[in-house]
Amino acid sequence: MSDPAPAVPKSEADALEGFLGKWRARWPEWVVMEAFVPQAQRATVLAWAALQQEMTDAAWGGQDPRPGELKLAWWQEELHGWTKGRRRHPLGSVLQRHQAPWATLAAALPQLPASRERARDPEEAVAALRGFSESVAMVDGALFAPGDASAAAADASVVTAVLLAARAVQPGDAHLPLSEMLRADREAALASWREHLVRSWPAPAASTRPRRLWAALASARLGQADPARPLGSWRALTTAWRGARTGRN
Q1: pTM, 2 dp
Q2: The pLDDT of residue 65 is above 80
Q3: Which of 60, 89, 197, 202 qualifies as a FRET site for 168, CA 20 to 30 Å off?
Q4: Nearest to 115 by CA among 72, 51, 158
């Protein structure tokens, strides 16, 4: 089904490009990997990725959590507005017109700043994100696998893995569970946590192709000594091929 990006005023288009560009800058491999996304879905896929990054950056970024909490409260209002046909944020020019559970996502947003606190162990790190991951998986399904009600429950664990991987790329060690910090020095603990995330990566693969591609990219990054370093073009291509070939959508 065709999914063309709607026409927006130039000023809003420029603002939209700014948010999309932030995501591309962190994940430059996407210029290669998006070839495995149907052309008609690419605008929606990129905008949805950028929205998730805006939310997680607000929750986990900076030394002071309060600015991020205020931003997430604003996003709650914005998402509720989307369900009523209103939008203020440029990403809404692409996403708001889709019939997705935006109100459910809004209701789960307070869990994100709560996950900023250091977990005691890997199990608590996963549990802290469970509700938010379920709401994200529901949006995945609505956007990319409409009519497949079973996708969301199965895909929530993959969403959590991608979120934990994204946080592992951020500066500092606040994402490290206490159990990891007690085992070794800081650099060894960071490496050990990344190895744990790779070993415990959920199976089977996600139901939707965009989520499989994001998961493949996140997992490949975690396997590097520096997870913030982008994959080379050839590895990005093979990673995308493996992510795209498994699943139904």
Answers
A1: 0.92
A2: yes
A3: 89
A4: 72
